[in-house]
Amino acid sequence: xxxxxxxxxxxxxxxxxxxxxxxxxxxxxxxxxxxxxxxxxxxxxxxxxxxxxxxxxxxxxxxxxxxxxxxxxxxxxxxxxxxxxxxxxxxxxxxxxxxxxxxxxxxxxxxxxxxxxxxxxxxxxxxxxxxxxxxxxxxxxxxxxxxxx
Length: 149
What we know:
Blueprint: E1 2-4, H1 10-24, H2 34-48, E2 50-55, E3 62-69, E4 72-78, H3 87-98, E5 103-108, H4 112-120, E6 124-129, E7 140-145
Antiparallel strand pairs: 1-2, 2-3, 3-4, 5-7, 6-7
Region (Disordered): 124-149
Keywords: Acyltransferase, Transferase
InterPro entries: Acyl_CoA_acyltransferase, GNAT_dom
């Protein structure tokens, strides 16, 4: 079930964020500890973006989330055990519905699984960067989805 995130989801969203990044991108440096990450999600990300969570209909657990900042898909993360079940697609579809004129996102160049996912869903790379525009100093790509045909 996809629903709008609530303030009370902050800890679960932080757990998804931390677990997903550790599993999918172990090469990234840890710039912030868990408490700093939770504070950022609670005080910055959730209040500043339109965020949806994917909630298990059987357990009520948060399995993933997507955060939209205008037409920028700022975050889409899943718990590692929730991948390849259609949850990422459901979250992405919700973000696309909220931005029918198009979406932009950034993905680390080395994150080939995420790149394949977005390309499968109609996103195209529009530029690349050497890492100077992100805190991790990791090369990235900007992707764009133009909206439905």
